[in-house]
Please model this.
Amino acid sequence: MIWISYIFMNSILTKLENLKVLQPSDLDWMTQTGAPEDFPVGGVLIQEGQVSESVYFVIEGAVAVVISQSNSEQTHEIVRCGKGEIIGEMSFVDDKKPSATVLAVEATRVLSIPKRQLQLKMERDPDFAARFYQELAMILSSRLRSLSKLLAQNKIVPGQALRKVLMVFAVLNDNDIDWMVTRGRRDSAVAGTVLIQQDQPVEALYFLLKGNLAVLFSMMVDGVPTEKELARRASGEIVGEMSFVEAGNASATIKCAENSLVLAIPQKLLREKLERDRGFATRFYRAISLVLIDRLREGLVQRGFGQKAYDQDQQMVSDVEYEDEIPLDVLEPTLLAGTRFKWMMNRLG
Model:
């Protein structure tokens, strides 16, 4: 009976169209390591603010991702996930409590993989780790696109600029950063310069070294083209990562809000590096996943949603004013990321 179940689960995983990067050998390991779980309608897979021990792959049925609203008992469904979707990946990557509740809206079957087992597999198999983090980055990027459109369409005004600096400098090692500095292009851009145009191909990945960028989203409102500012990006941030991991066009326009300095890494060079160096690929896609998760979590919290997990961990400080430049002493982890960012700036003059 166990063998029959294994064959059944493996055959379903190999047919899931959402999983674009994982190889048959990866899916085989997942099937052997995970266990099938069934949830009735209303069954809770993940509870907002409570630690979850597993990552789930939806095999059959559908689940809803529901977030709480601060100072209210109301909840809001932000997305539904069906076959092939990964659930619980955000907490796995950034090791924080879930910022949303996930419950079954249909009779649902999932493959439950213990986080500890998944972590051990990634430590022992760098090729699997690179593919798994790339898969996560693609999924997270797609979800961030959906969230950005939802906020714009509902005329939700942007909050403060997101001030958590890019986690890339804490995840990549010194050789990775040296490669980026050596192969990247240092560009000065005056205020008003468009680095990335919505719905157009993106030429490079950009690290913002100095200045301020506006994230703009264009849409039709009552038949009239309208452009809304969704967020600001300050020093130490990265842009163009969503189009890179999805290999698609830009979901928003990135324009210099003031004179800025960027390090541009052409996509072609970056893809070649990722193919050659699997250790770099693991670190890069993990870093990008952390950035996307941070934007998803904080984008919701700063607009009054998904507050419970942050209230418990006391991670949000709403009454602090920030300068345009991100001080090095608040980078995470403080010393490592701050030193690397400063080193990159010195190398680039």
About this structure: Residues 155-165, 305-332 have pLDDT under 50 and may be disordered. The chain has twelve helices and 16 strands. The longest strand covers residues 224-234. The CA atoms of residues 128 and 316 lie 34 Å apart.
